[in-house]
Amino acid sequence: MYADGDELARALAQLHELPPLITSWEVLALKHLLAEAADGKRFLLQGGDCAESFDDCTSPLISNRLKVMLQMSLVLVHGLKLPVVRVGRFAGQYAKPRSADMEERDGVSLPSYRGDLVNGAAFTAEARRADPQRLIRGHARSAMTMNFVRALVDGGFADLHHPEYWDLGWVEHSPLQDEYSAMVESIGNSLRFMETLAGESIGSFQRVDFYTSHEALVLHYEQALTRQVPRQWGWFNLSTHFPWIGMRTAALDGAHVEYFRGLRNPIAVKVGPSVTPDQLLRLVDVLDPDNDPGRLTLIHRMGAAKVETALPPLLAAMKAAGRKPLWVCDPMHGNTETLGTGVKTRRFENIRNELDRAFDAHAVAGTRLGGVHLELTGENVTECMGGARDLTESDLARAYKSQVDPRLNYEQSLELAMLIVRKRGGAALG
Ligand code: PEP
Ligand code: CO
């Protein structure tokens, strides 16, 4: 991928000396929370952009994404009566797997855009060159994102006493607003009631934890940030709390599996509809030989049309083998379609149906769906169709911003959180 080996080696040597973005304590704390989620004591909300871009490392984009996730987690905590583990697809989600190495436009062929960590999106030879300096910039942008998220969270942004901090101005007339406001009011009342009883303000409601995750795709980058730490054995990826292996790089004999095997982080793997029970069991044996609680999360992403046939055999095989991973549903990546106009989209209905069917498949198998993995943004985009405002094909042109996969906008994200609560309450989604 990189044309100049010396240039790459110099960038990696520099990266190797830079401080990590997170600590091993946080990594182990998250692992414990994920073990509890696998055990049915928590629910995982993992979400963010398909890919971050260096230009989008701005205050409003970061804080709006946080606002959406906070509102969704409020809905989930309130409705599921379970604590929620919040994990962002951010502070490092800068690399994308591609199905083709080259992209052709009007007879010109150039290397595919692989995410800002590797090259630029513009269709020029210069932009598409894999540039090692981008690894350093990716680390810096991730650190800036992480720093801002931590400052917001520590500064009281996530305080349950002030849910108005998370309001997004433009959603005033949302069809979901009344339901959400009623919930916020009821939570506020309970909080004041408990604090009156306790005679003091309850500190644990003033902050929440946010963890980070990304697809650990560019192993040069990941390895340079994989470190040993004092008083701990083994190796930690200190670029993110919770790295995952994408569907395209999950081969048992591939480099990514070999790298992940040696990490102490909790790790996740995307599981698509073509994976057989036997392949999955062998992969799990390699990645989690000790059946270690919290170590392994399996994120299934089958598509609404395939989930009912593809998922049950995997659940049955894992259960029969005594395996207890954290099962998470990504209802996005199996439901991407390209319209006649060439626009990539996803239908809310398919996203909802996949989740609905996944919950049912787990209920039948006697396993537990412990979380969701979503592509979402706090911006008012029109990238996915449907939802409460019933966005149609003609709406997509209005505010389609993603360079990669279509994301749920704020309203669609909140609606999905409400539907999950209804589903867990026993009803069908929608
Ligand atoms: C992604 O999460 O953006 C992605 C590419 O997913 P998958 O590996 O499941 O296709
Ligand atoms: Co994506």
TrEMBL record:
What SUPFAM superfamilies does this protein's entry cite?
Aldolase
Its Enzyme Commission number(s) read 2.5.1.54
Q: Which Pfam families match?
A: DAHP_synth_2
Entry keyword set: Transferase
| Catalytic reactions on record | D-erythrose 4-phosphate + phosphoenolpyruvate + H2O = 7-phospho-2-dehydro-3-deoxy-D-arabino-heptonate + phosphate
The record's annotation in InterPro entries points to: Aldolase_TIM, DAHP_synth_2
The record's similarity note reads:
Belongs to the class-II DAHP synthase family.
Please name the NCBIfam families in this protein's record.
Answer: DAHP_synth_II
The protein's name: Phospho-2-dehydro-3-deoxyheptonate aldolase
